């Protein structure tokens, strides 16, 4: 059993409290409080009816559900959406329908995305004249090859 982080939550209804489907799951599902019809290519900011108080040193990340993505082309525009520890507002999900032909309808109570709680470091960015060398150096964006 890994550490469990206790997170105070205010939920508009008890069934909106995010739940893990299985022991060991990283993502807890977020539910919609709204009815939304997403036309092909359309996006919407969808309420989840919850607000949380993350401990300092943690963040929560709003990410898509793979089933909605694979079957319906539903994703989260800004994935991973970042919920800061100090944020006390309602967590919202920027849902996007990437399907070119089919609309997607969200009903209240539907599981629209998931949230992952993680410890995060706070950085101090220190300007320097030279960065330390590394094996990768400045190579990126496909420098090791793209297709194989
Ligand atoms: O998917 C998301 C992403 C963010 N937020 C909330 C929590 C987060 O702490 C706040 C601000 O997010 P972010 O910093 O990504 O947005 P911004 O456009 O930079 O807004 P701000 O100027 O308020 O920081 O919005 C959500 O509810 N859902
Ligand atoms: Mg910001």
From TrEMBL:
Name of one Pfam family that matches:
dUTPase
Pathway-wise, it operates in: Pyrimidine metabolism; dUMP biosynthesis; dUMP from dCTP (dUTP route): step 2/2
Catalytic activity, EC: 3.6.1.23
Q: Name one GO molecular function term.
A: magnesium ion binding
Please indicate which superkingdom the organism of origin belongs to: Bacteria
Which GO biological process entries does UniProt record here?
dUMP biosynthetic process; dUTP catabolic process
CDD domains from the xrefs?
Answer: trimeric_dUTPase
Sites binding substrate sit at 65-67, 78, 82-84
Q: Does the keyword Hydrolase apply?
A: yes
**Cofactor(s) this protein requires:** Mg(2+)
Instruction: Give all residue intervals belonging to the dUTPase-like domain.
Output: 18-145
Please provide the record's keywords in A-Z order: Hydrolase, Magnesium, Metal-binding, Nucleotide metabolism
* Keyword Hydrolase assigned: yes
Family according to the record:
Belongs to the dUTPase family.
The task this protein performs is described as:
This enzyme is involved in nucleotide metabolism: it produces dUMP, the immediate precursor of thymidine nucleotides and it decreases the intracellular concentration of dUTP so that uracil cannot be incorporated into DNA.
Which HAMAP family does the record associate with it?
A: dUTPase_bact (MF_00116)
Please report the name of this protein according to its UniProt entry: Deoxyuridine 5'-triphosphate nucleotidohydrolase
What species is this protein from?
A: Leucobacter edaphi
Q: Which gene encodes it?
A: dut
